[in-house]
Amino acid sequence: MSAETQAATARAAQFRRRLWALAGVLLLGMALSLFLGRYPGPYFTPPAVLRDNALARTVVLNLRLPRILAAVLLGATLAAAGTTFQLIFRNPLVDAGFLGVSQGAAFGASLGIVLLGGSAAVVQGGAAVFAFLGLAASYLMAQRLRLGDWVLRLVMAGIGVSAFYSAGTGIIKYLADPLKQLPDITFWLLGGLWAITWQDVLHILPVVLPALAVIFLMRWRLNLLSLRDATAFSLGALPGRERLVMLIVSVAATAAVVSKAGQIGWVGLIVPHIARRTLGADAQAAVPGGMLLGGLFVLLCDDLARTVLSGEIPLGILTSLIGAVVFFSLLLSNKLELKR
Amino acid sequence: MMREDSRREDSRREDARRDTSRAAISLHDLSFRYAPDAPDVVQDITLDLPSGAVTAILGPNGSGKTTLLHMILGLLTPRRGRISLNGESHSHRRTSHILGLVPQEEPPAFNLNVLETVLLGRAPYLSLLQRPSERDYATAFRALETVGITALWDRPVPALSGGERQLVILARALTQEPDILLLDEPTSHLDVGNARHILSLMRDLRAQGQTVIFTTHDPNAAATTADHVVLMRQGRVLQAGFVIETLTAAHLSATYDVPIDVLQDRQGRLLIAVY
């Protein structure tokens, strides 16, 4: 074995260790988060209280635990879907929402709130259905456009479909009852996990877990799908078909979590960047690293959202705020590599 | 030095004669158009590309060279005609074991390093969910050694020079362990030094029995490197055959539509001059 082969093997082992360490940090963070909250006292819940106070136990097991799991799933899903989108579009500035998916979910949720009674199931179902319709419309439109390559056509179609949806959402907001329905829409659009129950977690698991599993298992292949069509094809891939499968898988998982959590900005955009910069651009590292970092990031934001003030801070505000700070600090750091 | 060149020139022609019996790629009555109402960009091409030789597909920009290459790869479906590799037609997967492509230009989208890029050449041998094994790493390192860039293995590809990047892509194609190496304009964006390096690597690979086919618009690249040459113009093959017989002033002038002279030095090397 040559020196270079040994060095390459050592490098791979080092990446694996980093991923395991990150997984450890995430588990630790989840465990600690159980003791953060506003009941019975603000900020920290001492473990002794759980022994004595039955209500505190219920709060931790039936409210905090599903919420912590949901936060991690939400972050991991948005980051995994974002990484997948960035790879298959060869573009670091996209996430799983941009093909009409985010705006579609917003439209569907608003529609559910205003015209269909506003029950949780209707709002979530509406968000999921219209998110998918957004993808389908973008995809079909892109096939009819006659300019640029496949990626450019999809991007243009996504922009157009998103504009249609946001106009529709605007109309619904205009029609909404300003005292009862409009606040619901606004709160949904800001996003948050305050209403998450075990049932919600169980609802999204059958979609989210298989989707995350597919993305994780396909992680090396995603490198191949980030090459140009002719190259990927010459290496035995069917780039069009394989990319479509990955698109659908990513959007399904995104639609599932967004239907429960509302609009959570920036996670799908910024976490893949951080994962690539800290763990390497190889999707073998960036995909699992992104899942773990995304889970950690949303967990942290949600801990702040439910702990800092006596009222809930909408999660979407925190992810955008912290995401933007991280984004600028990345851009301003002089270690920034101009190549993605 | 000169004598050695001369000897190499002789043996090159000798080898070329010996190997013409087997066709690596056979094209039969091939035509292609990009849209039903568009004109044919490749027209009625019937051609055998020999095994164990270097073949240059030479022609001006827009003569259909890349389209032809993409049809051979299976990326484009011909409107009419047949293509066979080693005498048969193959599944897509099998084709990716036979043909390795060095595409015309490939700007890296992400910051993959050299080894990670080259390892992608193992994809034809791995299933959807499989990842490269230690044996695949060994194959990748062998390819890096063949093109002489082992020391660059952990450098990010976007940080490399154009010449180095082309070597990385060549190493990736070699990692595919293909019977036939296809290179699409391998030297068109390289300086003369880097271009010569790539071309001489192609000769070295051919000396080890590799079939090499490349497109180029530079007649001198064909003259220095190829055993066989195919002259293309406006989607048709004008001439095909041994370099020494095919690269004549008349043929080249007709191909490029400008006056071209072919000079020959004492070693029999061709020099193509455009006036």
Compact overview of the structure:
The complex is a heterodimer of chains A (340) and B (275). By secondary structure, chain A is an all-alpha fold. Chain A has helices at residues 3-33, 47-52, 54-88, 101-115, 120-144, 150-175, 181-190, 198-217, 219-225, 229-234, 239-261, 267-279, 283-307, 315-332, and strands at 36-37, 43-44.
Please explain how this structure is put together.
The complex is a heterodimer of chains A (340) and B (275). Chain A starts with a helix and ends in an 8-residue tail after the last helix. Chain A has one domain: ABC transporter involved in vitamin B12 uptake, BtuC, CATH 1.10.3470.10. Chain A has a two-stranded antiparallel ribbon. Chain A has 14 helices and two strands. Chain A has 340 residues and is mainly α. The mean pLDDT of chain A is 90. In chain A, strand 1 and strand 2 (43-44) form a beta hairpin. Chain B is of the alpha/beta class. Chain B folds into two domains: 2-86 and 179-274, Rossmann fold (3-Layer(aba) Sandwich), CATH 3.40.50; 110-177, no CATH class. Chain B has ten helices and eleven strands. In chain B, strand 8 and strand 9 (236-242) form a beta hairpin. In chain B, helix 5 crosses helix 6 (162-175). In chain B, 44% of the residues are buried. The mean pLDDT of chain B is 90. At the A-B interface, helix 1, helix 9 and helix 10 of A face helix 3, strand 5 and helix 5 of B.
